[in-house]
Amino acid sequence: MLRYIAKRILIFIPTLIAISLITFIISVNAPGDPVESILNKKSGDAGQNTRGLTDEAAYIALRHKLGLDLPLFYFSITNATESDTIYRIARKDVRDNLTHLAFIYGDWNRVAKYYCAVERLNNMLAGEIHDSACNAKYIEMRPMADALYTTFEEDKIGNLFNKLQGCMPGICNVSEVPGFVNSAKDAFYEVVANKNSSRKYFPVVHWYGFRNQYHHWLVGFLRGDLGTSYQDMRPVGPIVWDAMKWTMGISLISILLAYFIAIPIGVKAAVTRGSKKEKLTTTGLFALYSLPNFWIATILIIFFCGGDWLSWFPAPGTPPIPSDAPFLYHITQGIYRLILPLFCWTYTSLAFISRQMRGGMLNVIGQDYIRTAEAKGLPEKTVIWKHAFRNSLLPVITLFANIFPLLLSGSVVIEQIFSIPGMGQISYNALEANDYPVVFANVMFAALLTLFGTLVADILYAAVDPRISFSKTVA
Q1: 1.10.3720.10, 3.90.226.10, 1.20.272.10, 2.170.120.30: which CATH number matches 236-464?
Q2: How far apart are CA 249 and CA 252, in angstroms?
Q3: Looking at residues 234-238, what average pLDDT do you find?
Q4: Which residues contact 212 (CB under 8 A, 6 or more apart)?
Q5: Which residues contact 49 (CB under 8 A, 6 or more apart)?
Q6: Residue 52: left if φ>0, alpha if ψ -120 to 50, beta else—which one?
Q7: Where in the chain is the domain with CATH 1.10.3720.10?
Q8: 249-279 residue pLDDT tens
Q9: What does R_g of the chain's alpha carbons equal in angstroms?
Q10: Cα 96 to Cα 421: distance, rounded to the nearest angstrom
Q11: pLDDT band, residue 53 (cuts 50/70/90)
Q12: What's this model's pTM, rounded to 2 decimal places?
């Protein structure tokens, strides 16, 4: 058994690496720019471009703080047209556009020269404007010059340069503008004139070593550093730990209640199969199972949390228990407030678990050794609970391995309805805000619990049924 556990734990390592890779790939390809999102939230205006909200230095500094100015992985496999340092360019849309230009024209060095000319033009236009009516054209040129960063079609770039040159006669006090515009235009047409499409067919491998985003993210996760939240720049660790206390507490109680209630019901249903009581119990459980938990939660709040009906329980959003309240008051009030959420969290599991238990018992009680025990005159309780019960637990144990990850993932619907600050709620809020570090921390923890739940289930298989062995036997 110990050798089997050690082997399974070793298998967990490549499995977790694969899960982390998939998670990381999704995170880096998710829509939106986290740096821009954070800066927009700080400025109070999420509809503007980052350059209109803060200077380039603030954007680059925040990107460096989040570790987004590093290469994505240990290596990259590209073609001969792409630079190995393209990741140093701050804006993702600019990086993508330059990669596209290099792929079309096959000469990264000339594309880089064109980019530098466009950068100088935009930096000049971003400077201070003299208070003069004739500088209206100067302001009009800014969006045109900025559009050069994200345009790769030759005709569109040509039109932008024509418009920029058309604005120059109306400019005063800025005599260097024509030189910057013409320099960028000449650099672009030098790219076009020296087109070499054949380079895109040559594969190239760029090696970056351990200083990359994935390595830093994985090592940080193993050390407990889960990154920085994009919503409020807080460390993700404290956010997740605080929510985990709520979700794990409620989930553990819910799982224990579900199993302690459903298992005896399933055993009783198998023993009294076909009786009116068994049919009534089964029908009632499945009727309850068919009711959606968000509807039941809403009904319970309406009827039992004040309003026009009963006020037996506090309504969602009730002020938290004071921190200076006595310990016993904390316990009693905490249990009191969790009665309704626990009911909604648990009732849907009763029918399914009891059905699995009933099926397992029916498979066992029809076997020869059970009939032998009955023929010996053993009491019915001894036959059921000592001989049949243990061997009928395998389906329920399998179900436990699937339920185990719920300890952390929580219930988004129930936590939202009852205003419980658990993992489900913070994951939902993080998805709405594109706060991917929080989302993927939850995904990784759920993956860990899934693997651990499978291991625990395998160990329990051998514990309840001695015939199951995970060690090799020699014939």
Answers
A1: 1.10.3720.10
A2: 5
A3: 89
A4: 70, 71, 72, 73, 74
A5: 36, 146
A6: alpha
A7: 236-464
A8: 888 888 888 889 999 999 998 888 888 888 8
A9: 32
A10: 39
A11: very low
A12: 0.75
